[in-house]
Amino acid sequence: MSGTLVLVRHGQSEWNLKNLFTGWRDPDLTPLGVEEANAGGKALADYGIKFDIAYTSDLSRAQKTCQIILDNVGQPELETIRDQALNERDYGDLSGLNKDDARQKWGEDQVHVWRRSYDVPPPGGESLRDTGARVWPYYLTDILPRVLRGEKVLVAAHGNSLRALVMVLDRLSKEQVLNLNLATGVPMVYKLNPDSTVASKEVLGDMSGAH
Predict the structure, then answer these.
(1) Mean per-residue pLDDT, 155-165
(2) What is the distance between the terminal CA atoms of the chain, rounded to a whole angstrom?
(3) Which of 59, 80, 72 is nearest to 10 (CA)?
(4) 1: pLDDT confidence band, cut at 50, 70 and 90?
(5) What is the DSSP annotation of 63-127?
(6) What confidence tier does 210 reach under pLDDT thresholds 50, 70, 90?
(7) 3-state class of 15 per DSSP?
(8) What's the confidence (pLDDT) of residue 208?
(9) What is the pLDDT of residues 35-53, one digit of tens each?
(10) Mean pLDDT over residues 148-173, rounded?
(11) Which among 4, 24, 46, 128 has the fewest CB atoms less than 10 Å away?
(12) Which residues are catalytic?
């Protein structure tokens, strides 16, 4: 059996709460977001895992989530690699806008296409496919080799960067991935086969908060 890959979406951010498109902007976690990160960390502590390394994005909401989880599992000083390859997808001209205001400006259907389509980017931003184009190579060159060596690896990142990764791990089509929503602060524990396919997947915690 190869190692273990744990994926966690960051807890609620201030802009999630305000219904704003966030992307590469850098708001902090809300008190609820801190609670969600702590809940994810406690679930992993109860699961009994100890990590060999952690990866996170260049954005503070993911970094704080990562640190809260490591504190909970008793590894506050664990080596953590930060890389913008794991950043949330860039929403371009939508970044910082209220989602309702964007719908008024461009129309409900157009905003829905930008948010949920696989390969249509918002103006000046990235589609999910564009996000995957930076996430997938980083996963293959930096993260996957460590898992295949038998290490236990934590990745604390974002809804869309992790959707791109789950799409590959769970072998979802570009149609299926459109309906994939990842709950904030809920760890997904993957055990991989030596050929890098998924041997098992466990979701630790309550998925009812997915949005």
Answers:
(1) 97
(2) 33
(3) 59
(4) low
(5) HHHHHHHHHHTT-TT--EEE-GGGSPPP-GGGTT-BHHHHHHHH-HHHHHHHHH-SS-PPTTS--
(6) very low
(7) helix
(8) 45
(9) 999 999 999 999 999 999 9
(10) 97
(11) 46
(12) 10, 88
> Does 3.40.50.1240 match the CATH number of domain 4-186?
yes
127-139 per-position pLDDT tens digit: 999 999 999 999 9
Exposed, middle or buried, 192 (CB in 10 Å: 0-12/13-18/19+)?
A: buried
Check residue 2 and give its pLDDT.
Answer: 77
What are 141's two structure tokens? 């060159």
Strand partners, 7: 155, 188
* pLDDT at residue 206 in the model: 62
- The binding site for substrate comprises 9-16, 22-23, 61, 88-91, 99, 115-116, 159-160
- Integer Cα distance of 39 and 20 in angstroms: 24
CA-nearest of 68, 70, 65, 82 to 28 is: 65
User: How far apart, in whole angstroms, are the C-alpha atoms of residue 208 and residue 23?
Assistant: 24
Angle at the Cα of 89 from the Cα atoms of 154 and 94, rounded to 5 degrees: 145
Residue 54 pairs in a beta bridge with 80, 154
**Contact yes or no for 180/163 (Cβ under 8 A):** yes
Residue appearing with tokens 């992993």: 44
